[in-house]
Each structure stands twice: as C-alpha cells, then as structure tokens.
Description:
The complex is a heterodimer. Chain A is α/β, with parallel strands linked by helices. Helices cover 37% and strands 26% of the residues of chain A. In chain A, the strands form 2 sheets. Chain A has a 6-stranded mixed beta sheet with strand order 6-7-8-3-9-10, sandwiched between helices. Chain B is mainly α. Chain B has 2 domains: 3-163, no CATH class; 207-486, Orthogonal Bundle (ABC transporter involved in vitamin B12 uptake, BtuC), CATH 1.10.3470. Chain B has 22 helices and 4 strands. Chain B is globular. The model of chain B is unreliable at 505-514 (pLDDT under 50). At the A-B interface, helix 2, helix 3 and helix 6 of A face helix 16, helix 17 and helix 22 of B.
Amino acid sequence: MAMLEVRGVHTYYGNIHALKGVSLYVAKGEVVALIGGNGAGKTTLLNTISGILKPREGTIWLEGERCDSVPPHDIVRMGIAQCPEGRRVFSRMSVRENLEMGAYIRADREGIERDIEHVYDLFPVLRERRKQVSGTLSGGEQQMLAMGRALMASPRIILLDEPSMGLAPMLVETIFDIVREINQRGTTVLLVEQNARMALTVAHRGYVIETGNIALEGPAAELLENPRVKEIYLGENPAPPA
Amino acid sequence: MTVRSSLRAGLSVGLIAILMVLIGITQLSGQLVRGWFGLPSATPGAWLILLLMAGWAGSRAYKQAKATSWGAALAAGAVPGAAAGLLLGALMWGIGSLLANGTDLRQWLAQLSPANVELLTLGLPPLASALVILAALTAAGAAGAALSFASERGQWGAAWAARRQGLGAKVTSVPAIEKFLARPNARQIVLIAGLALLLLLPLGVGQYWNYIIGTIGIYVILGLGLNIIVGMAGLLNLGYGAFFAIGAYTVAILTAPEPHNIGMSYWLALPIAVVVAAIAGILLGIPVLRMRGDYLAIVTLGFAEIIRILLRSDVMTGFTGGPRGIRSVGGPELLGIDLNNETFFTYFILVGIVLAAFVIYRLQNSRVGRAWMAIREDEDVAEAMGVNILTYKLLALAIGVGFAGFGGAIFASRNRFTGPEDFTLQVSINVLCLVIIGGMGSIPGVLMGALVLKGLPEILRQLDDYRMLAFGALLVVMMIVRPEGLWPSARQKNELRVAEEELTAGPGTEVVEA
Lengths: 242, 514
C-alpha cells in the first residue's frame, strides 16, 4: 500500500480549474519529485494534500485512511508535515522555539528533546544558533530550520515545497544532501521543485506536472534522460542531428 | 543639499515658534519657569523654550552636515537658528509696530496682550526687538551645534554613557547594599517591602488620589486584557470598550434598584459580568475572526459603536435606562459592612491586577501562549503545525474581553452609575494606546502605559489649557524615542531587531557558507 495516494483530484480556485484530475502515489520510504514550471499546479497540489484547499473531485489517502476532508490543523496529526514554500519560519521566535512549535501536536517531552537533538545533528549550524532569533538567520539557515521544524512533528511523510528557492548553488547541494539523509533515516519525502536536475538526482521517482495534469511519470533516472524533460526542464538543447 | 535641509528645519522651527507665541505657550513656559525657580519675571522662561528649540535645530543641522571643524559646526548650527530667528523676528516686528500704533491685537488673538508681547520684545522698539530675536536664535542654533560638536569631539558623550553604566555598579558597591544583596532572600525582602508599600499606599493618599490610582488600575486591567488579544494573539480589536460596557451594564442591571430591581449581591454579579462579556466576545468572534488585520479592526470598531448606540437608544430604555443610564449601582459589602468607598476599591483593583497579571504570566509561558504567538506570526504555518486557529483566537478573545467585563464591573460599581457616554470610542482607543505605549505583549509595559496615559494628564493639570496639547506631543516623542514601548517584552525587542536586519540585509541576500 502506498504511503500517500492522490486519486483523480480536481481542485478549483473559484472558477479556475487548477488541478484537472491529478493522480500520483508515494510509496513508503521513497523520495518522489514533483517538477513543473510556474503555475503548473505544484503548490496547489501540496495545499490540497495539506487540507488548505478542498478537492472538488477525487480522494487522497494516507496509508489507507482518507484525508481529503480533514482540516489543515489535523492533517499534521495524521502524519503529514509540511515545509512551506519560502521557508516561513516564525521569525520572532528563537531557533529552538521554532523546533518546539514544530512538535506542537506532541506531548512526549523526552521524545521531543531527543528529536531536537536529531535535528541539531542533521543541521549543526542550528545547534550553534539555537538561541538566536530566527528572523536573523541567513536564507539557507532558515530553510534548514523550516525543514527541521517539519521533522519535529515526527511525520510519516514530509512535503517539501521548493526547498532550493533563492539559495546559492552551493547551499542548494547541501539542502539536497540533507533531503537524501532525511530519507535514509526513514522519512518518506514528496519533493516539489523547479530545480528539476537536483530534484531528480535525489528522487527515486518523479512526476512532471503541466497545467494541472500529470504529463510524465517514471523512475527519476529515466526522466533525467527523457528528451522532453531535458529540453524543457533541464535546459539542454536537443542533440543536433548527426 | 545640507544647507537646504537645515534651512528647511530652521523654517519649521520658526513656524512652530510663531505658533507657540500666538497661542501663548511661550508665556505659559515663562510662568512655569518663574514659579519653579522663584524668578521675578516670566521673561527668562519665555525665551528659554525658544532658545532650546533653536539650539536643538542647530545641533541636528550640525549632525547632518557632519562638520569636522569648529567653524563649520558653528556655521551649520547658525543657519537654522537664523532662519527661525528671521521668521519669528519678522512676526515680532509686525506685532510690535501694530501695538505701537495702538491696535488692540487681543480682538483677534487673545494671547497677544501688550504685557505678553513685551516678554519677547523686551520693551525695545519693533525693529530692534526683531534684530535681537534674530541674533539670539542664531546664537542659540550655533551654540547647539557647538555643544554637540564639543561633546563628540571631547568624547564627553562616551564618558557620560560610561558614567551612566557605572552608576548601577556604584549603587550595588555601597557596602550596606552589597551585604543586603548577598543575602539569599534579598529578592523576597524587596518584593515584600514593595508589596507592603503598595498595601499602605491607599490609606495614606486621600480620596482624590485613590480615585486617580483606581482609574489607572482599571485601565491596567483593561490593558492586560487587550494585551492578550492584540499583543499576544495579534488580533487588532478596536471595539474593546464595548465589552467594558457590557461588564458595567451587567453589574448595574443586576444590582441597581432601577430599572429591574433585581438587587443581586455584587459578589454574585461580578463573575456573571465577566462571563457575559466573555460570551459576547465569543458570539462576536465566531463570524468575525475569519477576517484578518484591517477588516477585523473595522468590524470590532463598528460593534463598539452599535453597543454604545443601542445603550442610549429609546428602544432599550426599559432595559438599560437609555440615555440616562443606571443609577445607584450596588457596591461590594462583606458580612454586613459596606465596602463601597474609594480606599476599598483601590485595594480591590490592586488585587485584581495581581490576579490578572498572574493569569497572563502563566498563559504566556504555556502551550496556549505559544499557539497565540505562532498565530500572530504566521496563521497558515501555525495551522500546518497543528494549531486550531479559530479555537485559539476565540480563546484569546474570550479571556481578553473577560478582563474588560471585570474592569467594567468595578468601574460601574465604583461610580455607582453607568451611562452610555462612559463608553465612547475614546475608551477603546485609550486602552489600545496604553498597550502600544507600554510595549506590546509586556505585562509591566501595560502598567507603565496606564501610568503614562491616565496619570500624565493628571500631572499635567498645571498646564491647564495646553494639557492635551502637551500630552499629545509627549506621546509623539515617546513613540519616536522608544518605538518598541516604554517597557517592551524581550520578544518585542527582538521584533525590532529582526525588522532592522531585514531592512539592512534584505531577505534576498544570501551568504555562501563554506
């Protein structure tokens, strides 16, 4: 059984038909990349999964439980954590308080302490800055904090929305290394990205979304070699005719 | 460029000076200074305020010009001084000539009596007095700049700052105090002494000051309540006065002989008032809390006006007494002893404040407080973290307006009267102001804010007509000098720091870390 399964979801913004029957699944232990251009429906899909938007048609399942009519504040209790686009850390709280906020749904004090230590191990710079007000962190550090905060809910699956956005190339690599590490430690990941090359390098499988439809899907390595993906998302010119 | 800006500063100072002369602030200052120092005439005080203004303009101009030599500093300071002097001098020239021709200026401006004008003209002929004013203000501007220059150059500023820092250390290094502070229970002793002082205070200060302290105290309770809503949960509520009114009217209706003659005991009516206010808050909140920011502010503002107009409308006369209000509101009594006097109410209010502060302190550091803080920062993310936003917003509103109901219950019973005009928009605005002035989200800040907002007007009474003018000016100055509030919470300071960093660094700049 899939960890997360989206079946034929149609989502509207008012009259705008944003998702036109999207189906995808993420198996337990996988990293799945969802790539696509601006306005293709990537974030709409994430918001539909996390309960902020309600699908007009279709269903969403988390390990066999339906979760498409669950309010957003209960989605995280079911085991889906989000790391939103643009980081959105609580800028006036300290790093540690942000992490504690991530564990808001949990009551096991010792478990929370242990997980904070895990996050610090994963992002050593956050340990150094644990008392610092997070609004004063650099962009990359804020991204790490947002990821750490999502992990603090000890989710079954984590939704990462554009983690590389606005970061310097070197940091982007660091962030993707960490995505891989998070996955190796046992968390399933749905990764939404514009940076298709990095995303498909880390992911096991990928989906390409175009104007509200899944246009392509397959193992990440195959998508990387797909001529259409190469041309549109990797920016490579098609091989000149011999 | 800098000459132009310092000229402009000088002209504004000149215009302000003219305004001050025309409406009589200069002679008020003269009289006050004469009173304080026992001077024979009001002239020095009248001049003092003008010279201080010119000096301030000069000092600012010097700082903008970044002058590096004595000559440049003096010149930079003289420019705005001269500009102000030119304006004021021209005015005094005109006024002096008109007076000399026997025109009675008082028919247009009541403050321009010959005696008052003489404070500034010094009895000289019109042109001479204008020149004296020009020379004096120019000199004052230059002196202001020279003082700034000297203090920077001689590092007096740094020495002064160091001395100020050292002062705290010096106080604690007095042997007796040092010995006292070394005791393990020093904190408790200070705390108990402070409490004892607070307990004895109402007995020693008489009716009038008890009334003032009580009023301030009621505003502290209101401020603590609004602080939960605005400062902690970030919901801008401009209709807080409505819940104050609901608390007051609940107690009044339940205890007063008219219009319903229920005659309930005050001690029973008080908690009912709190609960009724809280329920009203929830009923308003359910539809309204889905709105954000400005919309929420406008809806709550409207709600407060609706409540006030309902209270005074004829429709409600049978139920709330209409425009005449409700008289003979019941007061507290204990074992047959009537406690309805200022001194008791002062104690009662003090106890209320301590209780309220304790509740809020506990809330602030709880799970609930964290949830509010997260909502205030980013509703959507808070929701994604599992915070049920509507529930927590309603909780903040209910607890906050419950305090308003409590304050209202005390207010009505202390005045033995309640009427619709006690609950104008001014109440809501005042409470919001005191929260902001004190420092949002800070408990001691509310205390300071209430002292300033409700206490200052009492202290400023000797300025009589100019009381509100001075008060307004002080508020503006306070917000410029301490934008984070008089006693900000540690978090509030952080916020300004974050805002500054964002301004200087910009969110897009990213440093590549190795």
